[in-house]
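debug: dumping io for the single-chain case to check the tokenizer round-trip. Nothing else runs in this session.
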Amino acid sequence: MADENCSICGRTAVFYSAYLKQNLCKKHFEHMVFRRIRAAFASNGLKAKDCSLPRGNSAPAGMIRFLFKDSKGGGIRLQTNTLEDFAVSVMEYFAFSKKPNISVNSKGTFSPLYTTSEKEIAAFLDLKGINFHEKKRKGLDAELLGILEDIEKRRPGGMLSIVKIGRTLGLI
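debug: decoded output
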């Protein structure tokens, strides 16, 4: 992102959001990520005020866990399934009638990153000095993700639309 300025404030940009069609500085990029996660909580009737970043300096994919405490003192375990995980799962259902094995919100778990891409998560954690190791997908999952990435290149937000369809149909 050399020599690019934030589309909002003019500071040096650290991330380009194809979906928003904007270059974002650190402040506005972080704001976008947190806004998206808070919206995911709100759309599922939860509050994200007790959410925090993982501790340490390494965040292997699929291993970050957060604990969200609700007002009654109970808790919901937050999973790290991402936009890509849910999009692949929905595509497997449509292409092969394979029932999704992940859910956004069920049985004491919630995936607040279901609207956030791995690229965004990796960039966000990199800004925080946390190493992120991308998930390695094999076989059918890798092929479907390749198709989804092609859709995303042609139509930014395409994966999000597929995930929203999956949510609307009650698949995930």
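debug: round-trip ok. Residues 129 and 158 are 30 Å apart (CA to CA).
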